[in-house]
Amino acid sequence: MKAFKTIMIFTLSALIFVSAGASAQDKKTENKKVEVTFSIPDIDCMNCQKKLEAKLPYEKGVKDMKVDLANKTIWFSFEADKTTKDNLAKALDKLGYPAKEIEKK
After folding, report:
1. Distance of alpha carbon 76 from the chain centroid
2. Which residue in 81, 100, 80, 82 sits closest to 90, CA to CA?
3. Do 41 and 78 lie in a common domain?
4. Could you tell me the residue range of the domain that residue 23 belongs to?
5. How many domains does the structure of the chain reveal?
6. Per residue in 61-88, pLDDT tens?
7. Is a pLDDT exceeding 60 seen at residue 23?
8. Residue 38 and residue 33: Cα distance in Å, rounded?
9. Which of 6, 61, 65, 87 would disulfide-bridge 82, Cβ 3.0–4.6 Å?
10. What is the side-by-side strand order in the sheet with 33-39?
11. 22 and 37 assigned to the same domain
12. pLDDT tens per residue, range 31-72
């Protein structure tokens, strides 16, 4: 009977430990991802596109980005707790491409 109680206590402890770890991991992956699209009228060639694709993925918080040369836009997916739309616009401006956010309808 004592062995049964020991096994039950061990099992319950293990379940609590595992569920606490899973809960902490869920909170880590819950970083709020935000999407934004900017109009960049000064982009006009493949070299401009390559420059943006080479530099901007390394901005803090950027998870994904796509440059659309034909429409002169750039789309970002980023973590809101690590950067902001303003910071991304400043990064574009710093590279020589002033940007204006395109509001979603």
Report:
1. 8
2. 100
3. yes
4. 1-30
5. 2
6. 999 999 999 999 999 999 999 999 999 9
7. no
8. 17
9. 61
10. 62-68, 73-79, 33-39, 100-101
11. no
12. 799 999 999 999 999 999 999 999 999 899 999 999 999 999
